[in-house]
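Task: sequence design from structure.
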């Protein structure tokens, strides 16, 4: 009995003490960490980047943009990237926010790594990248990746004929897998044939290695042909809503009739009247081997464009540890930045490739009209449209 009389008062006192402690005001945590507070003195933007501006070569290797291109881009997106100061702290300037976003795209480093370099919070990097890629796309897409008009398609076809010797070609089509960290609760939707998780970038590229139309976000498990069929571009192509130029005769010296403007693709895509793919098989007649070479010569521009894209923006060389939605916006931003860089560069270098063929090709069941169009191109490439070196190449 005595023991109970001692224990009960102690328990009551403890409850009373705990109640009093809860009423006391809690000590506030530090609003900004001391390391982040010294950002103006030691942060990468305020320290290293100002020195890099004195060396254009190092500046370009760091950002993948020249100083002039960086300033031009900042003038276009700066107003939308600016944030308002508050009574508690000053906002990060638009130039610094753009630097953080570009650095993420250029390296693919984790948010934590970039946060430590720029002396900002990891959550700040995450929000800055998420907002930045959206604002870059919105500000540049109308000027650097607008949907081509009929005159644009005609100009693209003329450049393909002059530079890559494939007439009536409005673009090269291919898909690229962008590797992701496996999204939560996604099952096998993003699992591709390589055993990695990815979303697909479907692109139409012109003769100057610029992206004219892109579709981003297809599941990695879907084939390139399936991605095309489900994309807005594929549906517009099937419905005839792309405003392609009218049919044209290849040569007045041969009675071949007018042919439609087409896109070129590899064996993963179907043969259609507006989409040319190589002949299947390895042992082919000379004329068909010539056609496959001429098609692969034009189609190579999309592969080269993907190579330039992944070389310029190293996020493609790592596994993106972001949500698929953010990965889609990052891909769209890098594609429009690719066009921005090529069209604002002092000189645009042209890398000409001479592939010997497209390698393994698969069978398909195309329509008769599509077969006729491909056979007409085949005859033209081996007759009046032949090149002096093509027989040596094949």
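Answer:
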């Amino acid at each position: 009995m005595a023991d109970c009389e001692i224990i009960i008062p102690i328990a009551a006192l403890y409850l009373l003490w705990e109640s009093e402690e809860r009423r006391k005001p809690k000590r506030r945590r530090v609003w900004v960490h001391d390391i982040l507070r010294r950002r103006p003195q030691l942060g990468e933007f305020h320290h290293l980047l100002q020195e890099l501006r004195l060396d254009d070569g190092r500046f370009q290797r760091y950002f993948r943009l020249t100083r002039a291109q960086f300033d031009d881009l900042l003038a276009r997106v700066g107003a939308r990237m600016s944030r308002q100061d508050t009574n508690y702290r000053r906002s990060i300037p638009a130039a610094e926010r753009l630097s953080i976003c570009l650095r993420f795209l250029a390296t693919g480093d984790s948010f934590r790594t970039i946060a430590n370099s720029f002396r900002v919070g990891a959550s700040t990097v995450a929000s800055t990248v998420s907002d930045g890629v959206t604002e870059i796309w919105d500000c540049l897409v109308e000027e650097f990746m607008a949907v081509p008009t009929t005159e644009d398609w005609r100009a693209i076809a003329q450049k393909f004929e002059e530079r890559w010797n494939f007439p009536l070609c409005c673009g090269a089509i291919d898909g690229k897998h962008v590797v992701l960290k496996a999204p939560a609760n996604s099952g096998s939707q993003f699992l591709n044939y390589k055993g990695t998780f990815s979303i697909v970038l479907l692109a139409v590229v012109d003769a100057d290695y610029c992206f004219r139309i892109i579709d981003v976000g297809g599941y990695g498990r879907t084939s390139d042909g399936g991605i095309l069929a489900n994309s807005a571009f594929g549906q517009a192509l099937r419905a005839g809503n792309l405003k392609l130029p009218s049919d044209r005769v290849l040569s007045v010296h041969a009675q071949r009739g007018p042919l439609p403007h087409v896109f070129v693709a590899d064996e993963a895509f179907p043969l259609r009247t507006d989409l040319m793919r190589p002949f299947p098989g390895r042992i082919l007649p000379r004329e068909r081997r010539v056609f496959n070479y001429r098609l692969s010569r034009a189609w190579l521009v999309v592969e080269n464009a993907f190579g330039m894209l992944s070389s310029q923006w190293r996020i493609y060389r790592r596994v993106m540890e972001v949500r698929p939605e953010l990965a889609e916006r990052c891909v769209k931003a890098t594609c429009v930045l690719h066009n921005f860089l090529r069209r604002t560069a002092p000189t645009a270098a042209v890398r000409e490739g001479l592939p010997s063929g497209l390698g393994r090709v698969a069978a398909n069941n195309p329509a008769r009209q599509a077969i006729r169009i491909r056979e007409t191109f085949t005859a033209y490439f081996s007759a009046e449209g032949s090149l002096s070196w093509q027989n040596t190449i094949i």
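The two ends are 105 Å apart (CA to CA).
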